[in-house]
Design a protein that fits this description.
Order of helices and strands: EEHEEEEHEHEEHEEHEHEH
Number of strands: 13
Shape: elongated
Largest sheet: 8 strands, parallel
Radius of gyration: 20 Å
Strand content: 25-35%
Number of helices: 7
Length: 244
């Protein structure tokens, strides 16, 4: 069989030749009962450390499956060092934001609470599952880290000095995003405000930080999840151009 398998799974265990990988119960159910895959069927595996591996189902029943790693199909690459800070949205829209940010290569997702943002509790386990599924489907080799929600001022108070923060300023106080991006591969973070926008005091504080810069995405007011996807797509495009 030479066709590339369509099923990719993220696993925790080490991947090396002849390694036996025991799938989690949910993955086993998906593979055996939903996708109707049996012994001998091939899948792709990745763990964020060892690249992507071709695997073959060595044992399977209705509750468990074991994959034998056969050969590496892609080496581990260096993922972009890009964070996304965002104010939580309504459930489906937060899921959309996490899915698209994962597809666009974000390495860390940081939910932050703001003055005008929603205060509903986030289910970070569900968001991690969403990110994992998006990584599996988009062929990326890592799954982004998702932190627990924290106040914006707390996150900024512990900010690493070598990481630039670009906050999307819908008041028009920033330069076009493409103009403020650096070399494309530097440690970077984007901050997307809540549906009601940043409070004036928050904007003043952001503008006074030495590591932050304001940017905008054009003349229209975008939904937060749209702004996140647009900003990440622009960063990726600029980085690709600067590498050529």
């Amino acid at each position: 069989m030479t066709d590339t398998p369509s099923i990719r799974l993220f696993v925790d265990g080490a991947l090396e030749a002849d390694a036996a990988v025991q799938l989690e119960r949910g993955q086993s159910h998906y593979l055996v009962n939903v996708m109707r895959q049996g012994v001998g069927a091939r899948v792709l595996l990745f763990n964020g450390r060892d690249g992507e591996w071709l695997g073959e189902i060595a044992a399977a029943d209705r509750k468990s499956a074991v994959i034998s790693a056969v050969s590496r199909t892609r080496p581990q690459d260096a993922a972009p060092d890009v964070w996304l800070l965002f104010a939580p949205l309504k459930k489906d829209r937060t899921d959309f934001l996490v899915e698209k940010a994962t597809e666009l290569g974000v390495s860390r997702l940081v939910p932050v609470t703001t003055q005008h943002g929603r205060t509903a509790r986030l289910n970070t386990d569900r968001l991690r599952a969403t990110a994992t599924e998006a990584a599996e489907q988009s062929r990326r080799l890592t799954v982004p880290e998702i932190t627990e929600p924290a106040p914006l001022e707390t996150v900024l108070g512990g900010w690493p000095g070598d990481r630039r923060l670009i906050f999307l300023d819908e008041t028009g106080g920033g330069a076009p995003l493409a103009a403020v991006l650096g070399e494309g591969d530097e440690p970077l973070a984007f901050l997307i405000g809540p549906e009601g926008g940043f409070a004036p005091g928050e904007l003043d504080a952001l503008r006074n930080l030495t590591f932050s810069v304001a940017a905008d995405l054009g003349p229209r007011i975008l939904r937060a999840e749209t702004a996140a996807a647009a900003a990440l797509a622009i960063r990726q495009s600029v980085a690709d151009l600067k590498r050529t």
